[in-house]
Amino acid sequence: MSIDVALGRRRARALLALAIVSVVLLGALYVVAVHTEWGQRIDDAALDGRTTRQAVLDATSDLLNTISVASLVLGTAAIMLVALLRSRPFLALTAGVVIGGSVVTTEALKRYLLDRPDLVGRPDDLGMTNSFPSGHSTVAMALAVGIVLVVAEEVRPLAAFCGLVYATLVGAGTVTAGWHRPSDVLGAFLVVATWTGICVALLIAAEGAARERSSTLARRVPSLSPFLAGVGVGLLLGAMFGAGGALVATRSDELDAVD
């Protein structure tokens, strides 16, 4: 086994461990923040103590308005296109799955799978509707991770810094605006961490296995794989643009409904 293959496997295992830890932390955070009285009181205190300065609220509104269904679709398409232009179709697909999987998971958890009991005797500013995890925070962090995945290694640290700052500001902004509780933001980031760990681990494992093969048949498979992956990415992009177009056509008044 080559050193590169061994290193790749160690990285893949580390990323899978990250995904497992993120899932455990996500579950623990939900139980503590949503299903305990003191957890709900902590979230309530953060909402009660948020700023009321109009200048801050206006800036927060402008920042949060950068997140919408349209920006999600276009941002994901642009990220995948960067990877395709670098001749990395598998990477493009990985970035798309990280973003799409994170957003779908968050919406499913928030809207259909999780609830919020009334344990403090009074609803907070959000009422007792479940808001865990935050959709805006998920989109911001998922797009940030997608950019980090597809850019060249030389600019990756800068992309990671800018993406982290943006996602953090969006998350804080949802609390400042009274849209979400702090635990919702942390939960969103853990959802993205889970998908990132799983998808990037699979990408590393797949690329390592392809490099390790040496038979004639194995050499032919990698030569076809980029083409097949490119077709898959193209279909995914087409579906994304189609979905985006349908949303624009049928729900033009709800394009900001990423919550």
* Biggest sheet layout: none
Shape: globular
Could you say which structural class the secondary elements and strand pairing correspond to?
mainly alpha
CATH topology title? Vanadium-containing Chloroperoxidase, domain 1
Instruction: Give unreliable regions as ranges.
Output: 214-225, 227-255
Beta strand count: 0
Helical percentage: over 70%
SSE string, helix = H, strand = E? HHHHHHHHH
Please state the second-level CATH architecture.
Up-down Bundle
Give the distance, in angstroms, between the N- and C-terminal Cα atoms.
47 Å
Strand content: under 5%
Radius of gyration: 20 Å
Number of helices: 9
Question: Could you outline the blueprint of secondary structure elements for this entry?
Answer:
Layout: H1 3-34, H2 37-48, H3 54-64, H4 69-85, H5 89-113, H6 135-150, H7 156-176, H8 182-212, H9 216-250
Helix pairs in contact: 1-8, 3-7, 4-5, 4-6, 4-9, 5-6, 5-8, 5-9, 6-7, 6-8
